[in-house]
Amino acid sequence: MSELIYKSAAQLSESLAKKEVSAREVTQAHLDQITKVDQAVHAFLFVDTEGALAQADQVDAARAKGENLGPLAGVPLALKDILAQEGIPTTCGSKILEGWRPPYSATVVKKLRAAGVVILGKTNMDEFAMGSSTENSAFGTTQNPWDLTRIPGGSGGGSAAALAAFEAPLAIGSDTGGSIRQPAAVTGTVGVKPTYGGVSRYGVIAYSSSLDQVGPCARTVLDTALLHEVIAGHDDYDATSINAPTPPVVAAAKRADVKGMKIGVIKELSGDGYESGVSERFEESLEILRSQGATIEMVSCPNFDYGLAAYYLIAPSEASSNLARFDAMRYGLRVGDDGSRSAEEVMSMTRAAGFGREVKRRIVLGTYALSAGYYDAYYGSAQKVRTLITQDFAKAFSSVDVLVSPTTPTVAFPIGAKSNDPVAMYLSDVATIPVNLAGVAAMSLPAGLSEGLPVGFQIIAPAMKDDRLYQVGAALERELAAKWGGVLTTKAPKLSSSAGA
Amino acid sequence: MLTYEQIIEKYEPALGLEVHVELGTKTKMFCGCPTEFGAEPNTQVCPVCLGMPGALPFVNERAIESTILIGLALNCSIAPMSRFARKNYFYPDMPKNFQISQYDEPICTDGYLDVEYETPEGMKTFRIEIERVHMEEDTGKSLHVGGATGRIHGAEYSLLDYNRAGIPLVEIVTKTVLGTEGYAPQIAKAYVKELRDILRALGVSDVKMEQGSLRCDANISLSPRGSGILGTRSETKNVNSLRSVERAITSEMHRHAQRLEAGERVVQETRHFQEDSGTTRSGRSKEQAEDYRYFPEPDLLPVAPSAEWIEELRAQLPERPSAHRARLQQLWQVPDKEMAAMINAGVVGIVEETVAQGADPTKARTWWLGEISRLANEREVEVAEMPITPKDVAEIIALVAAGELTDKLARQVVEGVIAGEGKPKEVIAARGIKVVSDEGELVAAIERAIAAQPETAQKVRDGNIPAAGALIGAVMKDTKGQADAARVRELLLGLLA
Amino acid sequence: MSRISNEEVARIAHLARLELSANEIAELAGEMEAILGAVARVQEAAKSDVVPTSHPLALVNVTRPDVVRPSLTPESALSGAPASEEDRFRVPQILGEEA
């Protein structure tokens, strides 16, 4: 039954519908894989063995009764530990929430459960989604299944690694500045950041409220589309969620046709910082799209050069406020309450003990940027850059259907290589950040390997046009898969239980 | 120590009043938890109002409507676009450690309220300008345990109940109020009272100061007359009644003057009003202004009420209390001075309700302004808070008119109702109050009195009418006060003619 | 770009209720300097006539009717509390507003 873990969600869906296999068998196969390889990969912070099997049994019972089940019923999924799942440990990669079991579930989690998706457990992440390598997790980093000495990307490295290690066919991530897309790129998987507001944020622990979005991750474009349709939609517990039908992403993924489409290459997202292997895979993918009937043109988005700076003001500012609630009073860690200290002291001690270095760094940065006298120069100016970037996108989209770039300038770097240089680390997000600032939609899918490590191709679509991502992505994927004999992850090393980092 | 008059001669007070109103919406400002008063602790909470990770706010549409109504009633401009902002500071009663409020884009601005206050020259009107009206959320309630008095100071720990956290609050801020010419305390009280009446008439809040659904913070400063520079202000909180508004401001004016006279600086700080002493006590120093790091609330979208909606709401505004009062004055033919007294005592509404129950306006007025006000003053409460209703008073007036009670007996019934002995009919029954109307009984009592005081009776026969008083008194005593004194007099004089 | 002093970082840390050691403060001061140096360029792009974006969505008036939604039970609400007593959250002594 171990072949089950190599199947796509679409294939599993078909087998389940035909009753060729049960949800329990599928779930057990993936739990076994987790047991086998997660010691080495460390993608999971919590595996809900009992709960997952119970969910699987529910699906099997429903199917036996002849109930009408959705396409993903019985398919397992790994959930980034940033989403609240009632009764299940939810840490957000932080000591300050270690052991916390939420009394409620995120809307996305409720939707997944209603669709019969089996949630295997919670995946590792950079603490409070702050990072590009998952090295900032308070519970140890995750290893990239392609090379266990390298980072799996961040902040959602756990979800991406779980996919690449065949521990789950589907995963949920969150993306604030590239936290779905960059891990997807360095692990050879597919990840989408939907249009801002396309997926509910209720129950998603907030990092930067105006940039955060939850999104689907998988090994194929179609699987990602299937998951996208389950989780997207208006939520009347999230005032920032869009009240309009979800773009037809599954149909677009099946159509997979770029004939007549206009594709814009963003001039500013190329050049010196980009490894030659990354640039080459990117150019090759452009060639493929051209050969499939798309026209490629160069566009300039000059204000993108200010994107990184604007992001590293807006995100920490919003985060400094969002993380204020972690104060030892109502939930989470409490340190220093020996009866002699005031609430204020206990708050300060707890936050010092419970937050890691990067989180403290961003809280201090954000607090400073918002403080009296500095607001206009920093946060205020950054919000103006945001307007300019949005205008750049609007102008570009007036002449092309989608924009493209390499997802991230480098392949997976070694664990520890950038952890002492925050600014160098921040550069990983230079191509992904402008997307979040404008609230548009973007996908990363595998473009190939460079020195044996995955390279990602980023597609960007205007707000509410998420389907274009899938249309173009599926076309590219099909051609590349033809070349490779399957999607890129079929080339990923098969980890054994003896593999260690 | 200067007298109040001396203070006013030397100094000009500048006032600033901040009133917080708890709206009477069914649910909280940003979540659907109920807002019932007095519920068991933490039974009206959810991830949103507890500030749990991942929770998001969602604006209550009725709260916006109520705020616009308040703004319109205060003659404000309603902003075509306003935003929520986060006010960031740490405090255990604030679950998110930021309050969602409004900052530089409030929903209502630049209004005014004309208030009436009494002077020796009669009622005058003063216009208080309103700076802004905006929406925000209330905090949880803390119980301090272990200290001597249940207060924060000296407490060992605190217990938090978040039922109140997230209840919609509207903050009404005045512009700096100048030119009150010695009437600052009265004008402030009149302002809060008028505001309260308007809010009640709008139906947006139950405005009970004692329950905290209407809170007032008073800012006051003094500056030497003619100096043109505003003095340092102090803010007084914990002002829980209309009376306290007046007392707090008066007390602060004295305190500021004392310091200034002594050549000392007035410290910019928050003070707390003490009901028992009528003075204020120092609280947290505000020398260092808190850095709230306001920024637009990213989880909420701007509020942009349409012009049509605003006009619909404007049309819904009830008659302004002052216009209403003017109309009643006309209707009841009340002289100015008496009307002023009614307004000051806060009994206009009550009298109106009494009249609605069938009572004569003048009689209603007399009772509420007279006997009941007197008793209220004795107990140091507002007339409105007295445990006697307009219906009760109307009933008593009717009984007097029907001759079943005399004025004197009626006063006993009023006392009884207020003492908690029950409704008027119950008090009458329990105390055995009855007008002795049987002429035979009266005559018998009169004859007994005449027999007991033959000399006095003779005086009356001889033309000394005032002397009858002693005989009437005796009859009243004999009948336990239940005789109609006027009828007794009539009969007595007839007998002694 | 003026130096971010240790005192400034200490003030910020207090505003953010983070107890930091003197070492941490000094290190952060250096890091802030570097980061702020890198991000200050947003001021170049931000001209006075550009309207700041606080929302990617061009939505307004998103409200809900004044209708009750389910609450948590006190047990659920308090389930993660570090300390509780009589259905209330128990917290250490609060440095109050009153002196």
Provide a short characterization of the protein structure.
By secondary structure, chain B is α+β, with helices and mostly antiparallel strands. Chain B has helices at residues 4-10, 61-73, 184-202, 242-261, 307-316, 321-332, 336-345, 348-356, 361-379, 390-401, 407-418, 424-431, 439-452, 454-461, 468-478, 485-496; strands at residues 11-22, 59-60, 77-78, 85-88, 98-101, 108-119, 122-137, 141-145, 157-161, 168-174, 214-224, 234-239, 269-274, 279-285, 295-296.
CATH class of the domain at 6-45 in chain C: Mainly Alpha
Order of helices and strands of chain C: HHHEHEE
CATH first level of chain A: Alpha Beta
Give the overall average pLDDT of chain C: 90
> Domains counted in the coordinates of chain A: how many?
1
Strand share of the residues of chain A? 5-15%
- The CATH topology assignment of the domain at 6-45 in chain C is Histone, subunit A
The helix content of chain A, as a percent range, equals: 25-40%
Q: Which CATH architecture of the domain at 6-45 in chain C?
A: Orthogonal Bundle
For the termini of chain C, the CA-CA separation is 40 Å
Task: Explain the overall architecture.
The complex is a heterotrimer of chains A (501), B (497) and C (99). Chain A is built from 16 helices and 11 strands. With 501 residues, chain A is α/β, with parallel strands linked by helices. Chain A has an 11-stranded mixed β-sheet with strand order 1-3-2-4-6-5-10-11-9-7-8, sandwiched between helices. In chain A, α9 links the parallel β7 (262-266) and β8. Chain A starts with 8 loop residues before the first helix and ends in a 17-residue tail after the last helix. With 497 residues, chain B is α+β, with helices and mostly antiparallel strands. Chain B has 3 domains: 4-313, no CATH class; 319-431, no CATH class; 439-495, Arc Repressor Mutant, subunit A. Chain B is built from 16 helices and 15 strands. In chain B, α2 packs across α5 and α15 (468-478) packs across α16 (485-496). Chain B is elongated and about 95 Å long. With 99 residues, chain C is mainly alpha-helical. Chain C contains 4 helices and 3 strands. In chain C, strands 2-3 form a two-stranded antiparallel sheet. In chain C, β2 (84-85) and β3 form a beta hairpin. The model of chain C has no long low-confidence stretch (mean pLDDT 90). Chains B and C meet through β2, α2, β8, β9 and β14 of B and β1, α4 and β3 of C. β9 (157-161) of chain B pairs antiparallel with β3 of chain C.
